[in-house]
Amino acid sequence: MSAKPNILLITADQLRADALGCYGNPVCRTPNLDGIAADGVVFHRAYTPNPVCGPARGAMTCGCHSLTCCTWQGGGGPIKPEAVKLAEHFRLFGYGAYACGKLHYEPYSPPGEPRLVHGFETWDSCESGRILYDFDRKNELRGVEDYMDFLTDSGWKGFSRAHGIGNNDIRPCPSPLPQELCPDHWVADRTIARIKDHMRNRADRPFLVWCSFPKPHSPYDPPLPWATMYSPKDVPPPVGDESMIMDRNPHMQRERITRAMDTISPEARRVIKAYYYGSISFQDAQIGRVTTALREMAIADNTIIIFTADHGDMMGDFGTWFKAIFLEGSARVPFIVKAPGTPRGERRMQLAGLQDVLPTLAALTECPLPKVSDGADLTGPLNHPAAAIREGTGYIRDVFYSNYGGEPWVSAMVTDGRWKYCYAQQGGTEELYDLASDPCELVNMASRAGNEKLVAEWRRRLIAEARRLGHTEILAPDGELVRVPCDRAAIARLPIKEMGWRWY
For labeling, which of 41, 179, 287, 493 is most exposed (least CB within 10 Å)? Predict the structure, then answer.
């Protein structure tokens, strides 16, 4: 048995923090995640450094803000080759490193070429058809996406999308697949198999497994009986309505139009939310299978578990879905840490982020990083509720910065956990929220008279963080924020597109 602890990093895709029982949700049932939280520490104010998949995963992989490790400032692009990377780092210390599920490392490699895995020894791939979309749209080849090969071998080729719902469509529908063939179930299967294989053949070495679930990202298609687990009538309706977005980031309006969100009725919003909750509870059951396997192999007590998500989902709030904005539903993520010797059942209010995953794991395992990171080692707050979060650069984090988009849709936020300021270049749109008195962000204080001094103070704080992190796209030559024209009427006339329909 290895002296160093094993690492199980569990991530969800597009899971907002307040959907979990351990984050206060009274409806959605997540007993297994609640159990991990009861044995560990919940970071209540955790955010993504970029509320879209690629750059968020880059931050987790490299232990730094996505502005530092990703090629494109706005979000995504290849991870810089010189960046420290999760799997590569722990393999240097003798860990076996395996990935199961969605990595979203770009660019995807064509068939016949080695996959981009950034140091993982194996990758059981489940990219929701994204690699097929690039290279094999008729799903005729093998070895492009492992999950699709699994469906073929199971006699269910093509049925994962037989409901006709695309990756970025919000219309709900139960999966045509039996639950044991659905993506999250398969990811748990592969995770368990990789851990068992490691313990049979390499038990003298610790393991790192990234169990990366593709759900509850749309399509909102949980399998039966999970699709009927929640009655839409019992699900709280989303907050706000579409009339409240006109003084907010214009991206929200654009998404409503181009993804046909304006066609969704109030009743349908609750059905979508019920299906979203069903997908989360289904995923929670798969996490329970994985943690049960750890206990059966008698390695649970020597395994660090971190659970988080790349970003959230607006889930109908203000008539919008998906991510790429800085309201709580999109930007706030769950962040739970269970490790040998850490407190049990405690909650922390310090500002945490996805860039903290690698530095924290490095500290917990005594596998020091080879160079300074702008992520933070959270072991101080893990053990001491009042401890400051100090990033690897020495900066004491009193605010959290997140950014999204390239020209002309550059945007960013800064928050101290109570106040949140958001800025979008389009129209020079400013938002300011008091999360203490208005946790649902119903009132944009930046558009209310009398708040000019407070807004200016927070504008200065965002500019300071943009400079510190090198977010030059949002800064004008005079040091102020770039503003570009915004024609709201033109946005309202945009065509429907970007639905992500993929017919396989």
Answer: 493
Distance CA 258, CA 227 (A): 27
φ and ψ of 100, to 5 deg: -130, 115
Which sign does the torsion angle of CA 38, 40, 41, 44 carry? negative
Distance from C-alpha of 279 to C-alpha of 97, rounded to nearest angstrom: 27
As a whole number of angstroms, the distance between CA 53 and CA 469 comes to: 20
DSSP 235-295: SPPPSS-GGGGTTS-HHHHHHHHHTTGGG--HHHHHHHHHHHHHHHHHHHHHHHHHHHHHH
Task: Specify whether the CB–CB gap between 380 and 390 falls below 8 A.
Answer: yes
Look at residues 238, 323, 239, 235 and name the one whose alpha carbon lies nearest to residue 280.
Answer: 235
Distance between CA atoms of residues 208 and 426, nearest Å: 42
Tell me which H or E stretch contains 198. Answer: helix 183-201
Q: Provide the pLDDT for residue 498.
A: 67
pLDDT at residue 503, rounded to an integer? 46
Question: Cα separations (Å) of 12 from 184, 196, 199?
Answer: 10, 22, 25
What domains can be seen in the chain, in order of their start residue?
Answer: 6-383 (3.40.720.10), 400-492 (3.30.1120.10)
> What residue ranges of the chain have pLDDT lower than 50?
503
Phi-psi region of 479 (alpha: psi -120 to 50; beta: other; left: phi over 0): left
Angle at 31 between CA 11 and CA 283, to 5 degrees: 40
d(CA 150, CA 69): 33
